[in-house]
Prior knowledge:
A hairpin with a 5-residue loop joins strand 4 (70-74) and strand 5 (80-85). The chain has two domains: 1-31, no CATH class; 41-109, no CATH class. A two-stranded parallel ribbon has the order 1-2. The chain starts with a strand and ends in a 7-residue tail after the last strand. The protein is 30% helix and 28% strand. The mean pLDDT is 83. It has four helices and six strands, in the order βαββααββαβ. By secondary structure, the protein is α+β, with helices and mostly antiparallel strands. It is flat.
Amino acid sequence: MKAVICGAGIAGLALAHRLHHHGWDAHLVDHAPGPRAQGCMIDFFGPGYEALNLMGLGDELRRYASPVKKFRYVDDRGRTTVSVDYSLFSKALDGDRARGLRRGPSPSR
């Protein structure tokens, strides 16, 4: 079977992974020429964290997770408008069930 998936966001990537796992020939298309350079985070907790584990990607998530101390929302001038301590999420989710991955360029490991 073949599939074309429009959009290389988290949903498109997850779908491509699952289809490939089940023997499909999945092709991703996106209007962006490559990964975003902003360095935004993709956070996994609750159902998203469980879904990654069910997909067999939990170890990879833990391996590549970025250290996170705070959530920060930054305005168009680079000013922090809201800041929340990430440990609050970790405590609420049994301490080890929340991870963040950096989008865009990552430091070498």
